[in-house]
Fold:
Amino acid sequence: MTASPSLTRPSALALLITAVVTGAFCTVSVVAATPGTRAVVGWSLGAAAALLSAGAYAVTHSVLRNRVLRSRLAALNGQISAQEANAARRSADAVRLDAAQAAERKALIAAHTAELRRAESARAAALAATANAAGRMQALATGMLADLRDMEHRHADEEVLGDLLHLDHRTAQAGRLADSIAVLTGARSGRRWARPIVMESILRGAMGRIGGYQRVRLHSTSDAAVAGHAAEGVMHALAELLDNAANFSPPTAEVHVYVEEVPAGVIITVEDSGLVMSEVQLRRAEQAVSGRSLDLAGLSGTRLGLAVVGRLARKHGLTVSFRPSARGGTGALMLLPHELITHVTPAAPTTGVPQEPKAREAKAQKAQEAREADVEPEATHEPAAEPATGTGATTAAAGDISAETSGEFPQFGESGLPRRKRGRALAAAHPEGPDAPAAPSRASTAASDAAARFSSFRQAVRANSPTPEGNTE
Amino acid sequence: MSRPGRDDSPDRLYTLTGGRSRSGSDAFDLVTLVVTESDPVPGMQSEHVAILRMCRFPTAVVEIAAELGLPVTVVRILLTDLHDTGRVSARHPRSAHRLPDPDILEQVLVGLRNL
Structure:
């Protein structure tokens, strides 16, 4: 037991007083005792005095200690009760706080939900408005391209034609941008082609939509054609890849396009000799064109291309991948699945030009074959070739041309002489000339039609190119 | 055009000519007769192939333009390309009054048949 000084000092004091009093009593008793008993009395009184002193010390000490402990107990009790009160207050506080927090949380969630809903509807509205505007821009661009084509046919002046071609190119690029926005906003694609489009036209259609089209070199002998519903998407995706290739290569470097037919479909390769993409860039580009994420958040205003390619690839089932090119730059491969590919029959080779010449050419070929076989061809090929002609306003005129020319072919077989075969244009221009009787009389209406057409051509160019028949008039 | 953008071709004219709008040669006018000198080879532009097929017999420039449905200026550029590589040759038509009389030709024909 450790005795604090506050306990020890009064105890020691009690011990001292007792010792002094008993010592004095002992001394007196010893002196008063008889000499014979003095020793015994002395020893016993001494022992009693020592015991008394020790008892006094013990009693004093325990009493004091008792007092100290009791006061400490009281203090502890007080502390405990205070703490209990405190705890009760705190728990009450906590309950109140919890309720407040729950209410706050609820309000916050409600606010967030409302905010989210508002943002969502704002996003949907903005997207719809953008899609709508893009659609209208597409329609404008398409209409303008048709107008420009009309004008290009009307104006034979080289200066005017050059300017028109320039405008045509600009409009095609603007149209591509509108197409891109439409694709990203999920609008319908701009145009639908009613017939399969041959690979050459696909490549040229894509190439015509980018700024640096003169640097693009096409290497294609493929006679594959892309189904009409996917042709626009394929052209657009290819245009974006070409644009990337042209933009990320030196301004004088050429971009090469190769077409290869494989069992899975057709692979179009776009190779540039520009910057080599790093592994990370290649991965990022492949991620972008995979079409897996439809999120618009990663878009930047200047780099829409790959996201557009991704959307189109997803829509039409195209597979796009990138690899380092043997030319030193990057090669982009686009695989068109064979569902999108059709093959035009060799008898009617589809060319990039409108339908009439194709039909006519097919007729010419068949007529030639028929001539060799010495068979009258009209009866067999006329119905087959007729549906292939265009549905435009020029169909009637085209029909005249092909009927007239194909009607003329058998004459070669009979006579073998006239190397001048179809002097049709000349005959039309010189009805009084010696060639005129050679023109078959059954085609007279067609001849006058052709004459009218030819005279308009002549009118158009007479100013800058003096022609022989201009001299004769 | 009745339905713009639907029935026309996706090719723009400037992609046919590589952006040129003038032929830079006056070898071809409207009535120049064009004759093919060599067969088309694979990989040629389809218009070139069409011209070469069409001009196996002499054909006037204006006729080619009408058949291809292309402006004459564009056709002249295409023809100049072919002419520069020697695939076609141009024949300017002789004026009508210098041609042999059809009666003589007919007599020749009859004579040949009688041989």
User: Anything to note?
Assistant: The CA atoms of residues 35 and 58 of chain B lie 5 Å apart.
